[in-house]
Amino acid sequence: MYGLPMLQLRGMELLGRNTLAERRLIFPRLPRRTGVMRDGWGLLLLILPLILAVPPAWSDESQITGKSVCVFPLVNMSPGGGQTEHQASLSEAVEQEFGAVGFTLIPQAQWTGEAGRLKIPPLRVLEAQQALTLSRSASADMAVIGSYSMENDRILVSVQCYDVSAGTLITGFLHTMRFNLGFYNLLHREIADLVQKVIFVTAPKLIGIQAEVRVNEITFTCPQDGMEVVVEGQKSAGRIQGGSLVFDTGGVRAGTVLHIEKQQEGYHTVWQAIHAAPEVALLPIPKKDTWATEIDWTTGQLEGAGATMRWYPIPNWVMVGFSEYLFTQVPAVSGGSWPAHADSELLAGLYLFMPPESALRFGVSAGFGTYLTWVPATSLPIYTDVYINVLNIWAEYHIWDLTFLLRIQSKVALGLGRNVLGTNFISGGPLFVPITLGVVLPWR
Amino acid sequence: MAIRLFRVVVVSLAVLLLGSCNVLQYIFGSVFPSTMTLAKAQVDLSKLIPASNNGSTYLRLVETGGYGYVVVVSSPQQSTPSMFFYDLDLNPIKSFTGANAPASSGIMVDVNGQIMAGGTLRNPDLSIVPAGTTQPLNAVGSGVDGFVAGSINVANISNSSSSEILTWTTYTSGWANVSSLSGTLSTGASNLRINALFDDGNPAGNVIMVISQESSNGNNGNTVTGYFLKIPKSAFISAGAFPGPPPFDAPPPHRDNLDGNSFGYANGSIFAYDTKTSSYVRINPADASIQSSFSSASNNNQQPVFAYRLSGGSFYSFDTNTRILTKYTAWW
Fold first, then answer.
1. Which pTM was predicted?
2. In this structure, which long-range contacts are made by residues B89-97, counting pairs with CB atoms below 8 Å and at least 24 apart in sequence?
3. Contact across the interface for A300 and B322, Cβ inside 8 Å
4. In this complex, do A380 and B38 lie within 8 Å of one another by their Cβ atoms?
5. pLDDT digits (tens, 9 = 90+) for B21-56
6. pLDDT tens-digit readout, A175-225
7. Best to test chain B binding among A337, A371, A418, A437 (most B CBs inside 10 Å)
8. In chain A, which residues have their Cβ closer than 8 Å to the Cβ of B28?
């Protein structure tokens, strides 16, 4: 959910009945000095710009709202103690940049009293530990300290920003600049860069915000019109129409796992787990197939092709199939014969493990069949090779609206009647068993 | 250009590799034997010849006087011996049983172009020669049971596997007995077996004798190393003329992994079934090299014996297991 644009908050809102604790979770640390925040309408007014302005959820402004900072006056370190007249303007520049992006500036009065009580002289405020102590007493989130030193027309400025609660340095800078008419422009730019770094580093994790967002409506999208959507096996959300369905959740926390039952007459019922969000894509459900045609090619019989008619007594789980495979043998010598073979087979099988909606499925089948062999332009009789198909193991993979088939067969010729193959395992070559590749086309 | 050449080489190597691994054969081969594409006619003799009871069944092919016959000679131990005559398209012509086809009977075309079959001399149309000449012939495992050497009929050929002495009988053109002769087949090798004896069709020519040493090649009793001996027919006419034992310390042309019952002769070449490559092979008897082959893939689980037309064109098999006689077109 990182990077979810605020635009998607259309289906979310901060509920009026939310507790204060929830509100704080959603927008923690609202500016304390903003009295309007204690009012529900004020809260809404604060939120509305966020919603209507459609800034991304990760925008800087949304991250820094409510952060407070203690900006300590920059300490004058100039040789001989001169140049004190610049202290106020330099410190003000720092305050302006932090204040401009929404930081709450802690008034100096809130920490000077504590400094006096602790007997901390102004110069020692420059020390990080002292500044952090004072900032902590003023309940500030950050502390900014700094110093400057001027000599001739050059000025050295040093500014550091600390995380008060962590007691760690966030960032800072030390620059030597020429003190002329352009100095303050350069100084503001440096401080602005520092502020941006502070914002970036201290920005709260986005998930922390969105996890607490409620979803009032879920728009289910699915290309399968007419499919009924049942939420948690109890409440029907209705049927997909025009590729979508809006479901009123009554308010559910974003990300909540919901189990969706998808059903439609003539289709398999399928459950899908979703995470509550304004828009959820549902996968189509597979149709119940009663009949299907299989086109296939088998090694050892490649000079031809076969077709199987499948009937599913239990749609897409149990099947009975009758196949007819016609093939020939291309003579390797001139004057040779062109035997024609017809392989007729009756099979019963079932799918294993994977449900119909799975792309990859496995199954087994068994049956019996007969090869009829006719050799034109000879006086040879018609041969009959009856066989048992002891076990077929197959895999089907559904992709591009087609189901591809790979089947490994184990056939045993029985040597009955006038036959060619005798009593043997039927193979396409030494150490191999016949392998079938094909495509399954359901009747729809 | 170089890339194209490289691709051609790579593809060629891949095809060769696949071919050598029988992959292509597997992919494009048929579950049915490739010999199905050669089959032209078939006769089921299972109702005429009983299932094997340790007797012998031979397949012979005789052509004389414009007639050609495929002859199944059955000599079962506990049933009546029979000779079944078919024309070259396997249409039934005649069958002889009992006294007309005594056990171990052979068949050959004699000096006069008449057929000595089942001990009875017959004209090319199988009618009995009025003189009623009779002579028993011993059948040789494969090939011919007798042959014409000059103006002499040579028959009753047999080998004693214990002494390695080959014996035969010579007859005049009128089938009067001339003499019983013998020759030493080997002095250094033992357990020799005559797998086949082939007539090159020239009375002044040679016979090709295929012999093997039992258990000399692997553990399959039917798979042998075949030695090819070309012997002048004149050596069979006079006593002491037989060329003597082949030098087995410097073996005659030979080839491993051949089905001992599969030998045939046509177009000047030996034919056999190579059990290692599962293919029919045409062998040059002079050096035992392969001249051509025909893969039969999955087919060799039956027990066929073969006969080839001397002039080629077709060959025949009789499956001693299923008792089915089949005509095939030539593959070579």
1. 0.63
2. B89/A379, B89/B40, B89/B41, B89/B327, B90/A379, B90/B41, B90/B42, B90/B43, B90/B316, B90/B325, B90/B326, B90/B327, B92/B43, B93/B69, B93/B126, B94/B126, B95/B48, B96/B120
3. no
4. no
5. 555 555 667 888 888 899 999 999 988 888 766 667
6. 888 888 888 898 999 998 998 888 877 776 555 544 567 888 889 999 999
7. A337
8. 302-303
